[in-house]
Specification:
The protein is mainly beta. Helices cover 2% and strands 47% of the residues. The strands form five sheets. A four-stranded antiparallel beta sheet has the order 1-2-3-4, with no helix packed on it. A four-stranded antiparallel beta sheet has the order 5-6-7-8, with no helix packed on it. A four-stranded antiparallel beta sheet has the order 9-10-11-12, with no helix packed on it. The radius of gyration is 17 Å and the shape is globular.
């Protein structure tokens, strides 16, 4: 579709026959979820994401619900990477019915400058969100950069002090959850570190230095994490 643009992430349906992708419809200024047959990659449908700039999306453990991170930022190919609506941006975390595309629930954070970009889902249906701050970092720091939504509960920011959050430079990327340790680990590329957060205490734990950390996943070894950097190193 000539009026669509991929926004970064995709996931598979429970039967692994369908690919779901985050996209933008520039003409109508709306976020979309593309639906494709995995064997041919032909588009077989699409849903609205009920927000601008959908970036990450994941299938919930029930196999029937999609959770979508709507970053809230308006861009357009004619303006390259310029952000066109920072003052009015409205990021959201949206849950959709995969059968119908109907919006089941929508959540917002108190600070509309916190762009909801990356997320991870636990086997129990908890959702963690890694945030990117679009306000002026020279004037004010974000109150947090991670939000946690225990299954069936509200979306809540995890606690972190201003001194601690400043070293993260307002920008988290990929995030993963270790349920055994109740830890969230997020790649923090601009802060050149990996930030670790506890869902048990609802707060920041520590930052481990690592240049341009970009992607993160659980490691095969117990209590380990695998982190990639922008140069392709692991």
């Amino acid at each position: 579709n000539t009026n669509r643009h991929f926004n970064g992430h995709g996931c598979l349906s429970a039967d692994r026959k369908t690919l779901l992708t985050t996209e933008t419809d520039y003409e109508k200024k709306r976020g979309m979820i593309g639906i494709r047959d995995l064997s041919t990659l032909k588009q077989i449908g699409e849903y609205e994401s009920y927000g601008l700039d959908p970036h990450d999306l994941q299938l919930m453990p029930d196999g029937k619900t999609l959770v979508v991170a709507n970053g809230g930022i308006e861009t357009h190919p004619d303006f390259e990477r310029r952000k066109l609506n920072i003052e009015t941006m409205q990021p959201s975390l949206v849950y959709l019915d995969l059968q119908t595309g109907k919006k089941l629930a929508e959540y917002h954070l108190p600070d509309h400058y916190l762009s909801i970009r990356h997320l991870t889902v636990s086997a129990q249906g908890d959702v963690a969100v890694a945030l990117q701050y679009e306000g002026d970092l020279y004037r004010t720091q974000p109150s947090s950069l991670v939000a946690w939504q225990a299954a069936g509960a509200e979306l809540q920011l995890l606690k972190i002090s201003p001194a601690e959050v400043s070293q993260l430079r307002g920008y988290l990327a990929d995030i993963v959850y270790d349920p055994k340790q109740q830890l969230l680990v997020s790649a923090t590329p601009r802060g050149h570190c990996v930030s670790i957060w506890s869902t048990a205490t609802h707060s920041f734990v520590q930052a481990l230095p690592l240049a341009e950390a970009s992607g993160v996943s659980l490691g095969i070894e117990t209590d380990s994490f695998l982190v990639s950097n922008s140069q392709g190193g692991l």
